[in-house]
Amino acid sequence: MESAHGRFNARKAVVLLSGGLDSTTAAAVALAEGYVLCALSFDYGQRHSRELESARAVARHLGAASHIVIPIDLRLIGGSALTDEIDVPLDRSEKDISANIPVTYVPARNTVFLSLALAYAEVIGAQDIFIGVSQVDYSGYPDCRRDFIDAFERLANLATKAAVEGVARFRVHTPLINFTKAQTIRRGIELGVDYSLTWSCYQGNEMACGRCDSCKLRLAGFHAAGIEDPLQYAS
Amino acid sequence: MESAHGRFNARKAVVLLSGGLDSTTAAAVALAEGYVLCALSFDYGQRHSRELESARAVARHLGAASHIVIPIDLRLIGGSALTDEIDVPLDRSEKDISANIPVTYVPARNTVFLSLALAYAEVIGAQDIFIGVSQVDYSGYPDCRRDFIDAFERLANLATKAAVEGVARFRVHTPLINFTKAQTIRRGIELGVDYSLTWSCYQGNEMACGRCDSCKLRLAGFHAAGIEDPLQYAS
Fold it and tell me: Which fold has domain A2-225?
């Protein structure tokens, strides 16, 4: 595809980077597979900007060729404890966490993020998009399953000038799709990821709370992997 | 669906409203079909805000129950004459206009807009989304074809908590999909649409230019419909 049109580059990948453990590991996998990383983050009205600082630190750590942060105020739409004034649930058991789609679900978030990743990919001439979703460990979010990703990939190849003109064939890579959190962490450690740079906590305090669903799943993952989490926790 | 869960309302529809002729007509069709209109517009770094003023005027004209405008700065992504500093082509023939996907193509725009419409629909409890695309008269945009819309609809029903839980079944309505511009205008006139409120011009001047592709297609549509365009043109 490169030779025919010049514009599309088989080595560039758009990597969705939240600054969390999963997206960081997915980015490290893309790098290990030989891709040049073009990182993409969103300032979507999260309650805190700690996550975005981590995304910036991780992009530097992994030697990303570029990193853009798109502001998209999902608070205007509402409907989630991550963007609204709903309390983040604390101290839930892993069983409770996985039983239902939680209030921290942001409606259609990955659909919105992948759409913007696709737009960005088309503009910069990348055909490959990496996203760190896992259907094993997905906290009940429907947009973390591979059938959703397959449907998005199909859409992407109908949606864009580049695909319709046969210049590009978009692919959405999900290297963690069948990984538990522990497997993700082990893979990241193998690849030299510095997890002290990442941030998972839903709360915006100085230290990770250790009590929200995201902290609980992260800590359980490190525990199961037999690795110590380099982050400091408030409790 | 309403009786089982209460939250989803069979009469509410999210209508993508740019303030142009097509989205205004699609909204008028939704209203005529008995939907309560929840209008959604985007401030995506268009070169001018004239379009958004028209969207607001149209939402009022059609008695929309709500209207939100989401800022999403696609200029950060780039790649289009509508958002970048590329010149909008002027004085092209209809044949030239339809021959290629034009520089005014915004990468993955309808994918991004439909994703946000889906998020909004899920939050407000609507299952129906209206978009004024036409595959007859689509200026060569791949994301105006029904096969793209079908792929999006499929994605929507995999992407969302409401669909996965069986509470909602999202549908994307394309009432103009097989309409020429002239047919769209005739349908709008039948429904009482005031086209003087709408705006199609790609340039942001006081009066529509009459020379860009969008003005040309609009004028040709009114001409073919045998109806006078109530807008004033600079040339």
Answer: Rossmann fold (3.40.50)
